[in-house]
Amino acid sequence: MKVVNKSDSPVTDAACKKATGKTLKQWFKELDVIDSLKKGRRATAQHVNAEADAWWSTTVAVESEAHHGVTKKDGRKSGCIATFTRVRPDKDLRFIWEHKGCSAPMQVDVQFQNNKGKCLMNVMTPRIQTRAEADGLRNAWSEALVKLKQLCE
Q1: pLDDT digit string (tens) for 19-63?
Q2: Stated pTM of the model
Q3: Considering only CA atoms, which of 123, 112, 42 is closest in space to residue 82?
Q4: β-strands 92-98, 106-115: how paired?
C-alpha cells in the first residue's frame, strides 16, 4: 500500500529560504559542520530553531536525516510497518501502523462481517493528525482493498 501525504507547505529550497533565510542545502552544510547527526534530532531542531519557527526547525532536522540516509535505531529503513496487537479470527484485527511520512504511529482496526456469503471489511484509523495524511491514507487503503478484492474473487 502506498500512502501519499501532500503537505500544505512545500518542503523545497525556495520555501525553506523564504521561511528561514537559508535553503535546505545550506542548512545541511551548516548541520554537517556541527555534526548534528551524532547530536540527534532534538539538538538539531533546537539549533535550527534559533533562526526558524518550530515547524521549519523540525522539518530541516528530519530532511537532514533523510538527506544522509539515516535509518531507525534497529537498522531498518523506514517504510510501512505493522505490528499486530490483536487478532480475533472471523471478527477483527488491530495493529499499529507506521509509514514514511506518517506524523505518528497509528492504531488501525479492521472489522470483518459476513454478509450473505460475502465478507465486508471496515478499516478505521482514528486520530489522524493532518488532512493530507487522512486523504493519503483513505486513497491508499481504498486502492489496497480493491486489489485485495480482486485477488479474492
Answers
A1: 999 999 999 999 999 998 888 888 898 999 999 888 888 889 888
A2: 0.47
A3: 123
A4: antiparallel
99 and 49 in a common domain = no
Cα separation, 29 vs 51, in Å, equals: 15
Residue 39 lies in domain = 13-67
- 24-33 helix and 13-20 helix, angle to the nearest 10 degrees: 70
Per-residue pLDDT, 71: 61
Q: Cell numbers 471478527 correspond to what residue?
A: 91
Q: Is there a single domain that holds both residue 109 and residue 135?
A: yes
Q: Quick check: 87 and 93 in contact, CB under 8 A?
A: yes
117-152 tens-digit pLDDT: 888 888 888 877 777 887 888 888 888 888 888 887
Q: Is residue 74 part of a domain?
A: no
Q: How many domains does the chain have?
A: 2
Q: Domain check: are 52 and 97 in the same one?
A: no
Question: Are 106 and 127 contacting, i.e. CB atoms less than 8 angstroms apart?
Answer: yes
